[in-house]
Amino acid sequence: MEDNYTQDVENEVPPHVWGIIHEFLLGQADPGLDLRQPHLRPSVASSYPFILFMYSLLMVTGVALNLSVFVHIIRNKLYNDVTCSFVLNNVISDIVKCVVVLPMTLYVLLVNNWILGELLCSFLPMLQDIPMHTTTLTFVLMAWDRLRFIRHPTKARMPAFVCIIGTWLASVCFVLPYPIYIIYIDLGKHISALDGVGICLINLADDMQEYMRGIFLIMYASPLATISYFYVKVSRELQTQQSSLTVIKFETRREGRSRTDSHSTTTDFRSSRGDCDRSSQYSRNSYRDHDIGRTRYETDVSDLDLVKEKRTQKYLVPMVTLYAICLCPLMILRLARLVLPETYDNNKNFDITYTMFVWLAFAPTCSTPLLYAIWQMNRSSKERLLGYFRFSNRKLRQSCETVITAAGTPAVPRAKCSHADSIVQQVDDGHSDNNSFQQDFASS
């Protein structure tokens, strides 16, 4: 088969021209190589087993974790909650990344010559960016919905299904200009021996830098800045409502104590309040307005589970933070590759760096479902899991209680033990904050 290929080439293409074609496509002038077969990039020839292992590990782990989260949400019907619906959309996007995008991206990163045809040359960048933009828009809508819900718990939340469809449609619209900036040269039209072999490159006649800068600003920098603003407002709103709720409960408890006083004291208080009512025409209305406003605020606060929302905030913020940090190097490198010239001297560095940054950009497909699993895990499961890493509450307390001298005096100060307990309490899933809040209120 290879002899026939060599004879066909020698009959159609002069040897010196054939050497130039091989040098351009493969980086080595060897006319005996069949360009219709995939050939490994020389820059990754020594490290491709490690690259294959890392990408395979990422794909398998990402699919397994996201499928587990998908089954958990569907089985327990958590999609009725808007936040879980957005998480479900993110899970679907991550599954698409691991099943479709990552294998094709890995193939392009490792193979030097393009044999995938004209269709994938034009649409592969679109397939790579659609799920990534969907994830970004999902995080934006999730943060916006949470801010609306925290501020007005009684109002209707955003329609999750409509928003999810909108994220995918908007992502498709953002990547539509890609085929304009990509050109494909079919070598099979000029040389029959190269049927199926082509050259896929950026169309230098059009300025792609402006488009990539726009994508960076519209689909990375601006959404993350918006998400940060929303979550800062949510955190402040939760702190404000928790402080207000504490004050309301304290006043309610104090009024309950005042009603248990003696009859004479109650009578004097009422008579004095009546004197105030008679002395001012606005006093009665002021008391009524205060009671109505307070009742409304108590109703709004009662509809909002502050402990649950603080716990949700505790895990959603790391999801977005890890996603932004992991995606940042790839977005910057995509801008830099359009400005920095790529030569034979720095080609290896570009390829290795780009391969590493692509892997890092897809790493949140594993971190996001892990954070969701920890979020949904109960307290006993967390303590049992942390016990495997020797950080459980039981082992920390044992280490403090067993270090005792022969005279019965603790060799470790009690302050350190209490500090260890506080560390475990911070590692806990948020119920410790609830308990401490309830204990503080009960003591008042």
Automatic annotation (TrEMBL):
This is G-protein coupled receptors family 1 profile domain-containing protein. It is a multi-pass membrane protein. Residues 65-372 form the G-protein coupled receptors family 1 profile domain. Belongs to the G-protein coupled receptor 1 family. Residues 256-286 are annotated as: Disordered. It comes from the Eukaryota. Gene3D superfamilies: Rhodopsin 7-helix transmembrane proteins. PROSITE patterns: G_PROTEIN_RECEP_F1_2. It holds the Pfam family 7tm_1. GO terms for molecular function: neuropeptide receptor activity. It comes from Tenebrio molitor. The chain crosses the membrane at residues 50-74, 86-110, 130-147, 159-184, 211-232, 315-336, 356-375. Its main location: membrane. InterPro entries: GPCR_Rhodpsn, GPCR_Rhodpsn_7TM. It is found in: Membrane. GO terms for cellular component: plasma membrane. The keyword Lipid metabolism does not apply. Keywords: G-protein coupled receptor, Membrane, Receptor, Transducer, Transmembrane, Transmembrane helix.
